[in-house]
Amino acid sequence: MDGHTLAILMFAVSCVVLLMGFPVSLTLAGVALAFGTLGESMGIFHLGMLGVYPMRIFGTMTNESLVAVPLFVFMGIMLEKSGVASDLLETLGLLFGRVRGGLGYSVIFVGMLLAASTGIVGATVVMMGLLSLPTMLKVGYSPRLATGLICASGTLGQIIPPSIVLVILADILQGANEQAARLSGNLAPDPVSGVDLFAGAFLPGLMLVGLYAVWQLIVSFLWPQSCPPVKLDSIRAESNLWLRFVLVVVPPLLLIIMVLGSIMIGAATPTESAAVGAVGAAILAWRNRKFSLAVLADVGRNTTKISSMVFIILVGASMFSLVFRGFGGDEMVEQFLGNLPGGAATAMLVVMAAIFLLGFFLDFIEIIFVVVPIVGPILIALGLDPLWLGVMIGINLQTSFLTPPFGFALFYLRGVAPGTVRTIDIYKGVVPFIFIQVLGLCILALFPEMATWLPHVLFK
Question: What are the angstrom distances between the C-alpha of 37 and each of 26, 50, 374?
């Protein structure tokens, strides 16, 4: 048995153990350590390689760009507690409800706003499930359409900046870009920063919003009974509706402009903008009279839990990648992808298909930390633009929240949906949106300028 065989077995065993429900970080680190010990006993792996592991962890923990993760998490949870989402949904429902499919459009629009202000999929899906789903069902929306819209719109936080996924991807792709440069002999590669990836993901994220809206429009014409307008007597009379629209929608829009605008014009780094967003979210909570020491403590606890989960997985994944490379797994993957007929295009297609299939069973964080560091350097060395690659991976990972049997958005909505909504309706409801996201991937593959144009205009 050689190192390549052990590398394949280690990856397979990790997937099986993860599917059995064991903690991600402990699984990645534990399986890697067990296989490293096995490799040492067989004379294939030298445990002395693990001596650099503490330095890798220290380097990760001192990475300033990753400080944006807990700050964006704090921003998202504070906005959840401030009642911004509920106010947005109610106001836009009143504004668009009279139009056929209007509640669907309001869900998509609110999902976009929450994605650009919170970036936390679970919180967004749960909030919209609690607030929008009962109303949509009451006025006669198809359970499949309603649940599909809520799940898909809730996942927009994966790709629309500021996104935690993009922050992590940018850090990993920067390392992959440097490694690819060494493979090709380029000693001064162009850096890949979170700012670049935010700008690159902006237009593709809006494209997905547009595709969702187009699908809602098609449904409203072909199957009007599935998304009827709200009857006038069902809508609360609001003489000052537009004033309410300004008071409810403008503040979070200003916060989004402050956070994203400062990044896009180069006035602040993602970490600095995340700090501004965290303070702005606290101000919005105070404005809505939802800010207190108890709320602050609750937000702090939840921020610590989510951030700790992300970073402890990163610690375990670092051990996994170190042992995987010790077995020569990266060389094996490089040879496999490099020898495929069709070159970089075929290699990209294979990687995208693999990530899509892994999304049926694994969480996006596991895929980012385990798969991307392995395939990223090879794809970039084959000539692919790292910005375009990062956005493609981000959209692909977004589908992992919708694809059964382990799509987390499905679980989040099932937990808050009324008992009259069948689980099979939720699963069938997301199918059109999975195809829409695959269509979005294909469009971005054909027109990579969608991801590369804005960063070049802003920063080059």
Answer: 16, 11, 21
Of the pLDDT bands very low, low, confident and very high (cuts 50, 70, 90), residue 234 is very low
- 114 CB contacts (<8 Å, ≥6 apart)? 79, 85, 88, 124, 127, 154, 156, 157
Concatenated DSSP letters of 335-349:
HHHHTSTTTHHHHHH
> Distance between CA atoms of 170 and 150, rounded to whole angstroms?
28
Query: 244-267: per-residue pLDDT in tens?
Result: 778 888 888 888 888 888 877 777
- Neighbour count for residue 435 (Cβ, 10 Å): 12
**Cα–Cα nearest to 374, from 333, 323, 326, 339:** 333
DSSP 363-387: -HHHHHHHTHHHHHHHHHHTT--HH
Tokens, residue 427: 């699963």
> In one letter, which amino acid is 451?
A
- What span, in angstroms and rounded, lies between the C-alpha atoms of 151 and 414? 10
**pLDDT, tens digit (0-9, with 9 covering 90-100), for 284-305:** 888 888 888 888 999 899 888 8
Among residues 169, 173, 175, 168, which one has the least CA distance to residue 384? 173
Q: Which two tokens stand for residue 175?
A: 């390392």
326-356 b/e with 16+ CB inside 10 Å = b? bbbbbebbbeebeeeeeebeebbebbbeebb
Residue 235: the pLDDT is 46
Instruction: Name the nearest CA neighbour of 19 among 307, 358, 318, 311.
Output: 358
Q: How far apart are CA 91 and CA 96, in angstroms?
A: 9
Distance CA 243, CA 284 (A): 18
Which alpha helices (DSSP H) does 185-232 contain, by range?
Answer: 194-222
Question: What is the token pair recorded at 5?
Answer: 């065989």
> Average model confidence (pLDDT) for the chain?
84
What DSSP string describes 143-194? HHHHHHHHHHHHGGGGTSSS-HHHHHHHHHHHHHHHHHHHHHT-SSPPP--H
* Backbone torsion region of residue 291, taken as left when φ is above 0, otherwise alpha when ψ lies between -120 and 50, otherwise beta: beta
Q: Burial level of 223, CB count in 10 A (0-12/13-18/19+)? A: exposed
pLDDT in tens, 436-459: 999 999 999 999 999 999 888 877
Which distant-in-sequence residues (6+ apart) come within 8 Å of 111 by Cβ? 124, 128, 150, 152, 153, 154, 156, 209
